[in-house]
Amino acid sequence: MSQRILLAIVPRCVWALLWIVGLTWRFEVIAEDGVTPVVFGQKAGPEIYCFWHQCVLPCAMYFRRSGAVILISRSFDGELITRVLRLFGFDAVRGSSSRGAREGLLGLKRVIESGRTAIFTADGPRGPIYETKLGPIKLAQATGAPIGAFHLQPEHAWTLNSWDRFLIPRPFTRIVVSWAQWTRVPPDLPAEQFEVMRRELNAAIEHARLRALAHLGQKAS
Question: Can you tell me the distance from the alpha carbon of 154 to that of 28, in angstroms, rounded to the nearest whole number?
Fold first, then answer.
């Protein structure tokens, strides 16, 4: 089957299946003390959201009414994902840490300046797992937008044997949406301090994931 046919058929099939199954999911929001979480249906503002690549599917369903813009790689797989997400009401900027990084960040900078939210799969598109890139820090430094760290953990899911341990939540499962402390990057932060802020953001996303697992009584992997 040619790529053209795949692009015409697969996104709508994936969207329809995810929509049907996603309507059975039950989201439960938790947050650290002092953190105001973004709740379902809330229109997002000029902020940056970061989460691990493994929870793309529940994220697409949970934030489908946010009008957010997601950074997605320029690969063929990225094009498939882009078309699926657009059916959910998202928009996309193309680029990644390996291809088109500068153009991707410039596109997201315009997104923030227009008053919308930019979303990163922080360890994507190829990993390593649970290790965020510098992109969110650079964008926050350039725009002054705060970075929200969160994780969506299904109580019952299939886990793929992939680099990111991709999660496919099962029908009718509960999904914990866990929010950690926001990361704020000073606009005058020197480049040599970016790594310090990257580690801070990384710790926040991981803390959100571990809190979600603990809330469900699951062990960390």
Answer: 10
